[in-house]
Write a structure and sequence with these properties.
The complex is a heterodimer of chains A (211) and B (388). Chain A has 211 residues and is an alpha/beta fold. Chain A has helices at residues 14-25, 59-64, 75-81, 120-130, 145-148, 163-167, 187-192, 194-207; strands at 6-11, 41-44, 49-54, 70-74, 86-90, 96-102, 114-117, 135-138, 154-159, 171-179, 181-185. In chain A, the strands form two sheets. A six-stranded mixed beta sheet of chain A has the order 2-3-1-4-11-5. Chain A starts with 5 loop residues before the first strand and ends with a helix. Chain B has 388 residues and is an alpha/beta fold. Helices cover 38% and strands 20% of the residues of chain B. In chain B, the strands form three sheets. Chain B has an eight-stranded mixed beta sheet, with helices on both faces. A three-stranded antiparallel beta sheet of chain B has the order 2-4-3. In chain B, helix 1 crosses helix 11 (314-320) and helix 7 (194-204) runs antiparallel to helix 8. Chain B is elongated. Chain B starts with 17 loop residues before the first helix and ends in a 7-residue tail after the last strand. The chains are: A alpha/beta (211), B alpha/beta (388).
């Protein structure tokens, strides 16, 4: 089955650009500009590759079920989704970190501290590890609102420059975990298409920048 | 929690409809004949076992066990695997009669889903166990049986990845300082989190040589050209000689094209002590099955003998098997009630010819045309016993 295409699940948006450029740099014969605004799938017959474009949170799901052989996903997504996928390489792109933040000079409510986040698993793991029992409130976006209007004492979210926090009058309290994009693989594809995947890993590894 | 609707089933439970049932049954009957011809004896064990015996000895994580309580207050589990119950039966009874034992099973096992659907919580497994033989030939037999069985089913594009739990443990242990470090690295390899492995090694601040050894091992062992490459990571060579012997047996058996060695292969099934393997095939994103040597498990049940086996998932086998179009050969004998005798005779003749024959009184049908359309052939027996 060496003639079947390698299916790569890519996250839509900012990470796509960076990862795509990295593939070009690694010597893959890909068109410089891809029209990806509405497309969900891109075929690259020259390289026998097929990209599927997914919501970043969903990339590990496609890879776990084997409908994509490999994928590119943020560490935040991997920690949150806890999918059974192989994590092969840290691409060291799209770097940021997960942190807790809140209004300046505030502490946690003593009776029932509330944490708003779109990463309920990461947040509850973190506070459990710290030995603090908190209540997690799941939100899907505009997390910064929660402390501003009194829904939660803290938020747990990704921070890259800190600009969004600042604009909303929030300060960072605790560092939770570093995040960067990772190359992940389906367990069966990793064995069945091993040569192609190893080759890809080796070529990408050369393009990974430190720091 | 919304109320349960009439059509719903517990999370992870599935119905097996006739078409899939037929496919699974075909695998079962082929497998049965195939394994019997190789001297394997089939057995069954109960669906329920004690938590304290089989539940604890099995390698399935506690949160995946379905538990219930019997009338005496003992905790029971729905069997989460078959290897552990077989170890129980073998050590308490069967080993007194014959050594080594070659046992086989078809059984449903139960593992609760933690997150969501997409994966069944009850599934059929087919497997074998050789108990009481510690030689490398038993390892080879198990692997060759798995290969031949897949070939028998018409599956050609598959890979068996072989590792060794003992060798992996020894290499990691030799290069880390604490049990916690060992456990963390082992768990990262179970998840095949290579990035996490490198990060953890860096975080441990091990002496330079140990750190380099672990990282080199990770790189080299996943892309092995010869087993001897691993030699430099080990002080005792016995396990390695064993693996080389296994490799040469598999070479002689001419199955090298299906085999890949990966000494970083680690299993969440923590009872494996020696050789272990995983089976993958084109057409499924999941592992079809796995197996290995589990010499320690039998001693949990009071017998110190070697044991090895494998289990394969019937549901995944169905997915990767070539689709054989079974010619539809269903005959309908439709009769008016007056002609029952004639209809019975006709049906008997057809069945004797090996045709699947459905006997249906026209009086019992509301929509004759729709029902008839589901058959490849219709014999009508109308008034006066004439087929129309």
């Amino acid at each position: 089955m060496s003639n079947t295409a390698l299916t790569i699940a890519m996250p839509k948006g900012r990470i796509f650009e960076e990862a795509y450029d990295m593939l070009i740099e690694a010597g893959f014969n890909l068109p410089e500009n891809v029209e990806m605004s509405r497309k969900l799938m891109i075929e690259i017959p020259e390289e026998n590759i097929r990209f599927i474009l997914a919501k970043p949170m969903d990339v590990p799901t496609y890879v776990e079920h084997g409908v994509a052989d490999i994928g590119i996903a943020g560490k935040d997504v991997l920690l949150e989704e806890r999918r059974n996928v192989h994590e092969l390489l840290d691409l060291n792109i799209s770097k940021c970190h997960v942190a807790s933040a809140g209004l300046p000079n505030t502490g946690l409510n003593e009776i029932a501290p509330r944490i708003a986040t779109k990463y309920p698993n990461i947040a509850s793991d973190y506070y459990r590890e710290k030995g603090e029992q908190v209540e997690i409130i799941g939100l899907n976006g505009s997390i910064e609102l929660a402390p501003m209007i009194g829904l939660a004492d803290r938020i747990v979210d990704i921070v890259s420059t800190g600009q969004t926090l600042k604009e909303n009058g929030l300060v960072e309290y605790e560092f939770v975990v570093d995040v960067s994009s990772r190359l992940i693989a389906n367990q069966a594809s990793y064995r069945m298409k091993n040569a192609r995947i190893q080759d890809l890993v080796k070529r990408l590894k050369k393009c990974v920048r430190e720091g | 929690m919304s109320s349960i609707r009439k059509f719903e089933k517990p999370l992870g439970m599935r119905d097996t409809f006739p078409k899939i049932f037929e496919k699974q049954e075909a695998i079962r009957s082929k497998g049965r004949e195939f394994l019997q011809l190789r001297g394997y004896e089939f057995l069954k064990t109960p669906t329920l076992e004690y938590y304290d015996t089989v539940g604890k000895a099995s390698a399935i994580v506690e949160s995946s066990l379905f538990k219930l309580v019997d009338t005496q207050g003992n905790t029971l589990v729905l069997r989460p695997d078959m290897t552990t119950p077989i170890a129980r039966v073998a050590s308490s009874k069967l080993l007194k009669e014959k050594i080594p034992l070659r046992l086989a099973y078809f059984a449903n096992v139960f593992r609760a889903q933690e997150h969501e659907g997409g994966r069944p919580a009850e599934f059929s497994q087919m497997g074998i166990e050789i108990i009481g033989d510690s030689s490398v030939y038993a390892d080879a037999e198990v692997i060759l049986t798995a290969i031949d069985f897949l070939n028998q089913l018409g599956v050609e594009d598959f890979k068996i990845t072989i590792g060794n739990a003992g060798i992996l443990d020894a290499i990691i242990r030799k290069n880390v300082e604490t049990d916690e470090q060992f456990a963390e690295l082992h768990q990262l390899l179970v998840q095949k989190n290579l990035v996490g492995f490198e990060e953890a090694v860096a975080r441990f601040r091990l002496p330079r040589t140990e750190e380099e050894t672990l990282l080199n091992f990770l790189e080299e062992a996943t892309e092995l050209t010869s087993i001897r490459q691993i030699s430099k990571y080990l002080s005792g060579k016995q396990a390695l000689l064993y693996m080389e012997q296994l490799a040469s047996i598999l070479e002689i058996a001419d199955v090298a094209k299906y085999i890949a060695f990966d000494f970083t292969l680690a299993s969440h099934m923590n009872y494996y002590t020696g050789m272990l393997f995983e089976v993958f095939a084109a057409g499924s994103g999941f592992s079809l099955g796995n197996g290995g040597r589990y010499d320690g498990l039998l001693s949990d049940f009071g017998k110190d003998v070697g044991a090895i086996g494998f289990g394969m998932r019937i549901d995944y086998l169905v997915e990767v098997m070539p689709q054989q179009e079974v010619p539809k050969d269903d005959v309908l004998v439709l009769f008016v009630s007056m002609q029952l005798q004639e209809a019975l005779k006709t049906a008997e003749t057809l069945r004797a010819q090996g045709k699947r024959t459905t006997l249906q009184a026209i009086e019992g049908l509301e929509d004759v045309a729709t029902f008839e359309a589901q058959f490849s052939d219709v014999v009508r027996i109308g008034q006066g016993g004439i087929s129309l």
